[in-house]
Amino acid sequence: MSDVPKTKGPASYFPSIEKTYGQPIAHWKAIVRAAMPTKHMELVQVLKQQGLGHGHANAIVAHTLAEDATG
To answer: What is the 3-state secondary structure (H, E, C) of the chain?
Structure first.
């Protein structure tokens, strides 16, 4: 059994997002942060306009907002 804990929540999508869209998560988070402050779903729309699917965009926005809220 592996000692590495399984990633849960929005971050569990990150490997797939990087593979599918060819950009690191930091790239997408920078786009989200550049569009702040605005509502969650408006930030999702910003990423969808960049070509991301809804679920992937939502995961990045949720993770970025949570990360920024905790510092």
So the answer is: CCCCCCCCHHHHHHHHHHHHHCCCHHHHHHHHHHHCCCCHHHHHHHHHHCCCCHHHHHHHHHHHHHHHHHC
Going from N- to C-terminal start, the domains of the chain cover: 11-70
User: Locate tokens 């679920």: which residue?
Assistant: 55
Tens digit of pLDDT for each residue in 9-36?
889 999 999 999 999 999 999 999 999 9
pTM greater than the 0.85 cutoff: yes
Q: Is 53 exposed, middle or buried (0-12, 13-18, 19+ CB in 10 A)?
A: middle
